[in-house]
Design brief:
Elements: E1 2-10, E2 18-23, E3 27-31, H1 38-46, E4 52-57, E5 60-61, E6 72-75, H2 87-97, H3 102-115, H4 131-143, E7 149-153, H5 161-178, E8 181-186, H6 189-195, E9 198-203, E10 206-211, H7 213-218, H8 224-230
Parallel strand pairs: 3-8, 3-9, 6-7, 7-8
Antiparallel strand pairs: 1-2, 1-4, 4-5, 9-10
Helix pairs in contact: 2-3, 2-4
Protein name: ATPase component of ABC-type sugar transporter
GO molecular function, one term: ABC-type ferric iron transporter activity
Keywords: ATP-binding, Cell membrane, Ion transport, Iron, Iron transport, Membrane, Nucleotide-binding, Sugar transport, Transport
């Protein structure tokens, strides 16, 4: 049974008739060059972009469900942490804003800090965090409400290779541990190879191919050399 189903998703100037089924617990990487439509697809799923077509979560039509009620965690490429809040309060903000019991917030945030190995950062402010540390705090904030779907839009962009590799391992571990349905956008082939259960190749607003890592890299619909060149590699 599909947990996310997209039917004939079309957006102005971008996506073109995308139909896709994603199983519960899958980690699907959307691979494509800049401007291909990857981020727009995540925004459609999150309810942040207008579209034609149908979006279903677990057989429920989501077309008229606002973003805040879609049970989604979303980590953008640009990590927008509140500069006036320390790590603990950045992570707990969504809980406090939604009326989560005050006496349980500390325990829940401490658990998330431990899960991501960032307990030593809880009193630091964003200006005192490295790029990798900000990504981990942003990931903790996206996960704190225990969403059923996690959207990751180029989360490792601009990080040095060693830090990016470390966080990739953490994302893979978290995905397995939490059994989250996870959609990950990148133009980086290494990220796609290391993370994906499935890869969806998007070009010119179309879903050209979806399949296993082996399918995409060894039986590509799009000529892989041309695609690599288009991605700037």
């Amino acid at each position: 049974m599909s947990f996310i189903r997209l039917q004939n998703i079309t957006t102005p100037y971008c996506l073109k008739n995308i139909t896709l089924d994603i199983k519960a617990g899958e980690l699907v990487v959307f691979l494509g060059y800049t401007g291909a439509g990857k981020s727009t697809l995540l925004n459609v799923i999150a309810g942040l972009a207008g579209y034609q077509g149908e979006v279903y979560f677990n057989q429920q039509n989501m077309n008229n469900i606002p973003t805040e009620k879609r049970d989604i965690g979303y980590l953008l490429q640009d990590i927008y942490l509140f500069p006036h809040l320390n790590t603990f309060n950045n992570i707990s903000f969504a809980l406090r804003a939604t009326g989560y019991p005050a006496d349980k917030i500390t325990t829940k945030v401490e658990s998330m800090l431990d899960l991501l190995h960032i307990g030593h950062l809880k009193c630091r402010y964003p200006k005192d965090l490295s790029g990798g540390e900000k990504r981990r705090v942003g990931l903790a904030r996206a996960l704190i409400r225990e969403p059923k779907i996690l959207l990751l839009d180029e989360p490792l962009a601009s990080l040095d290779p060693a830090t990016a590799k470390s966080i990739r391992k953490e994302i893979k571990t978290l995905h397995s541990r939490l059994n989250l349905t996870t959609l990950y956008v990148t133009h980086d082939f290494t990220e796609a190879r290391e993370l994906a259960d499935k890869i969806g190749v998007i070009a010119n607003g179309r879903l050209e191919q979806i399949g296993s890592v082996q399918d995409i890299f060894y039986q590509p619909v799009i000529e892989i050399k041309e695609f690599i060149a288009a991605c700037g590699h």
